[in-house]
Design a protein that fits this description.
single chain; about 525 residues; alpha+beta; Rossmann fold; 11-stranded mixed beta sheet; 4-stranded antiparallel beta sheet; 24 strands
Length: about 525
């Protein structure tokens, strides 16, 4: 009970104004990166009415601390800069050294984003060669909160990428950063803020929930809990006031001090707790974009996950106030026993929702169903994070760094039924469709002997049969002698579509899809 009371009192203190010496948020540390080409925000805490001066290698600004103990300044944007020094002066003097300008990407989600480089396929050689001084990374500790926190919990300050520091980097973030840095020369920063096993709901901001009509019930439940909490607060505060008065008397007369009352924490209802603690504190910090790898914990969902992605992305963008910044995400990889049964979709429904999330402006999806060998299908943490990071990097290189490259694999565009056949057309065919063969981290190569796998076809009776699928002029024709009047096709629409092998010649796999909207099968 004592530890609970101490935690609650600490939480109460955390929302009170900070007094004393000038302080910076933990995201400001030696070796940090600042976002290039955007106004530079610097903020912190000090005594009320204290004048704070901020200087970044000769560019400076002043601010007077508010009655609540906060201050902030804005410095002009810089396009380039290395080994810069940030000096913050008030009643004390703070110096942040070895700052570099570059592009900062927030890497968030659950364990497959959190997974460190040292546990991944082929990482030993990558670690040895990891002298990438223009890649920087900060790691946040796992923390949740029922209310918006002022400062993010840094588990590690900013690190310069090296063989010594890189083993614990997010592997997906590292491979993304290395590819973009290699291709463009632009310094890349990684904000490593993620938590294994977490659902999407705790990462969504409250205003993100409120902005999506399909989440109205969740928003209403959360507001009801908040209203009830606010109704209880006067009684909680009265008990705390009584304790404070008693404690003052006890201290003055030398008697024993009683334990503080338990203050009920604010309600969570499963929403926004991680956003409050691990995202909200940095929304003043300009970024280039975000990378997201999550969904396993929401794996039983379908289109509801799309609405939550709308809330997640929309809420973050609203809070950062940078417009529709890039938001790229990984579709779920293959998992569990290999199957070709499209009537038992498992994660297929959430992959479909993830694919639909590409309709949100300035987003992109990396398809990774081909990154899990049969020997690893029971492991929810695939070891090939190289392809995940590299495919996310292709999205950024094409959209944000003006490279003329194909950035994703084939995606269904349209279909037509002719007799006993269904014809499929695709976007993102690149230089052509191919039957691909993928081994480990090696690029997919074209197979001249294999056939397309994981295609199924059904008639109006909704009974599915394995289909013959052939590539014809960068379209696909699907048929089966068991279905004389077909109406629908599915591709890789199951939990683990092992052997799915439709690619474009750029080596990027096709996203799973279906042409039907059947909610169930007989």
């Amino acid at each position: 009970m004592k530890s609970t009371r101490l935690i609650l009192i600490s939480s109460l203190v955390a929302v009170l104004p900070s007094m004393g010496a000038v302080r910076l948020p933990k995201i400001f540390s030696d070796n940090m990166m600042l976002q290039r080409d955007m106004p530079i925000h610097v903020w912190g805490w000090a005594d009320p009415a204290e004048v704070v001066t901020v200087d970044l290698s000769g560019t400076n600004a002043k601010a007077t601390t508010t009655p609540e103990g906060t201050w902030s300044v804005e410095l002009p944007a810089k396009s380039v800069g290395e080994n810069l020094e940030l000096v913050v002066s008030g009643s004390n003097h703070l110096v942040v050294k070895n700052i570099i300008m570059g592009d900062i990407w927030v890497c968030s989600g659950q364990s497959n984003m959190e997974m460190s480089l040292q546990g991944c396929l082929g990482a030993a050689e990558d670690i040895k060669a990891a002298a990438w001084p223009k890649i920087r990374r900060i790691k946040f500790a796992r923390t949740s909160s029922g209310w918006p926190e002022r400062d993010a919990p840094a588990a590690r300050s900013w690190d310069v990428c090296s063989p010594e520091t890189v083993p614990n980097f997010t592997a997906v973030g590292f491979y993304f950063a290395r590819e973009v840095q290699k291709q463009t020369g632009v310094p890349i920063g990684i904000v490593d803020t993620n938590w294994g096993g977490t659902r999407i709901e705790p990462w969504i901001s409250p205003d993100g929930i409120e902005a999506v009509p399909e989440l109205a019930a969740a928003s209403a439940a959360k507001q009801k809990a908040i209203d009830h909490y606010r109704q209880q607060l006067p009684m909680e505060l009265a008990r705390m006031d009584q304790w404070l008065a008693n404690t003052k008397r006890q201290l003055s007369n030398g008697s024993s001090v009683t334990e503080p009352p338990v203050i009920t924490p604010p309600p969570s209802a499963g929403w926004s707790n991680l956003y409050h603690a691990m995202i909200q504190p940095i929304v003043k910090f300009p970024i280039k974009g975000a990378l997201w790898y999550q969904g396993e914990a929401n794996g039983s969902e379908g289109m509801s996950y799309f609405y939550k992605m709308q809330a997640l992305i929309g809420g973050w963008r609203h809070q950062w106030n940078q417009g529709d910044f890039p938001f790229y995400f990984a579709q779920l990889a293959s998992f569990d026993d290999a199957t070709e049964d499209p009537a038992g979709p498992g994660w297929a429904n959430i992959r479909e929702a993830q694919a639909k999330a590409q309709s949100i402006p300035n987003t992109g999806m990396a398809v990774i169903i081909d990154t899990v060998p049969l020997a690893e299908t029971a492991d929810i943490h695939p070891k090939n994070k190289f392809d995940v990071g590299a495919r996310l990097a292709r999205l950024a290189l094409a959209h944000d760094y003006q490279q003329s490259i194909e950035f994703c694999g084939p995606q269904l565009k349209s279909f037509s039924v002719e007799g006993d056949k269904i014809h499929l057309s695709f976007t993102h065919v690149g230089t052509g469709l191919m039957i691909g063969n993928k081994q480990g981290r090696k690029p997919a190569t074209e197979s001249n002997t294999d056939t397309l796998k994981q295609f199924s076809i059904a008639g109006s009776d909704q009974k599915w049969f394995p289909a013959n699928a052939v590539i014809e002029n960068d379209k696909i024709t699907v048929s089966s002698p068991q279905v004389k009047e077909p109406v629908a096709v599915r591709y890789a629409f199951c939990m683990n579509p092992a052997g799915a092998n439709l690619y474009n010649r750029e080596g990027l796999p096709a996203s799973p899809f279906r042409t039907d909207d059947w909610k169930s099968t007989p």
